């Protein structure tokens, strides 16, 4: 593990290992976490505002860093990095007083005479680990919830977008003392060192495979976890769907960040009767957004690159494997690994044993699968792990209802995609393989809070049930059992 320069209060800077520096900061946060238990809404809001203002002040720097990392278009930096953090911060600043209020609870027949409420207390020292694809948003938005709930935080952004991580480290250092919020850059070794510590809560966003490692590490200390994971998100285009709308919205949801979005449509079932029309519309949308040829698309300022050569090779392999097994390229298909470029690519005729049918694509390939029987589609979706998102474009209420009721997914859009993420008053999260727990707004606040049950005696009805257990008391118990 790397060495770092550590600045101990009142002492000369000392060279130390990153592992011991992580331990030092973690220990430093202990006292602060205890102190923050009594922090007021105003104090927490002031900290969130600091983060909000710093993100606003660094917009240009985010554009620059994201472009250097994977040629991410500035508009997509605004849309998917800056805007979500700002919106999460504003929502928390407006709502925090209300969220923090103890929630009065009416007594049940068993607890008549007791006053009860739920009190939100901070969990304590929290760890936030984020993935590379929206490194800023997926680190700073949970940080808003973490601060709102009154915790300290250690952040570990992804090493795969190093320019963005370095900028985030600089911002955090400028606006927070390390005993409140600290950030450690680095790879798996840094995440592993952090996961060895007894945090009170771990908020992890990333792949299901690493989510399992995080959960196993959390189990050693019985830390609670929020796991925001990924997987394959299915999409259904019904026979009566508005094809133009479906193609326009679906291509946007798929090709923003060049398909590297956890909730991007991963594969599409299209009713066979509208498949050709749908594919034609999709190709028209791709061409109008990014250009007609591979050369034009490579020059497009609106199409981010695949994050690195390793992932370009991974996606290229998925494409090659599918083609070898008989898949047909409907549009796109060009790859330049050294440029981290893969054309937006639609595929059909994909055999069931192709790797692309089981692995999360997380890139610009989109399998199109014709269907005639919605029940079979639902059976196939239910045979896969529960997805983070499921989308349906349809005008038939019965088909929408059937799909909603007979499948399970973290979230769903009807006649749209991806925008469920943007709604700060909805819980955002997966289910089983796609995640545990929720983020955003009050759900994020609760993820970082312990809901403490408090009961206060007013008058002692329960005394009637203390020993000695007379016949009268046994009859009273009997009555209580029968009348519940
Ligand atoms: P990843 O799981 O490889 O990495 C995520 C983070 O975990 C990084 O900070 C990384 O350094 C760290 N990490 C990697 N290996 C680790 C290990 N063995 N032990 C401990 N930490 C480790 O994910 P990624 O490639 O950065 O992102 C892509 C994945 O994240 C996709 O599966 C995608 O669907 C998912 N994702 C989910 C959401 C969501 O909100 N649910 C959002 C974005 C991405």
From TrEMBL:
MF terms in GO: aldehyde dehydrogenase (NAD+) activity
Entry's family note: Belongs to the aldehyde dehydrogenase family.
Keyword Oxidoreductase belongs to the record: yes
An annotated GO BP: aldehyde metabolic process
GO cellular component, as recorded: cytoplasm
Organism: Fontimonas thermophila
A Pfam family the protein falls into: Aldedh
Keyword match Oxidoreductase: yes
Keywords: NAD, Oxidoreductase
SUPFAM superfamilies linked: ALDH-like (SSF53720)
Positions of the Aldehyde dehydrogenase domain: 20-453
Protein name from the UniProt record: Aldehyde dehydrogenase
Catalytic residues (UniProt): 228, 262
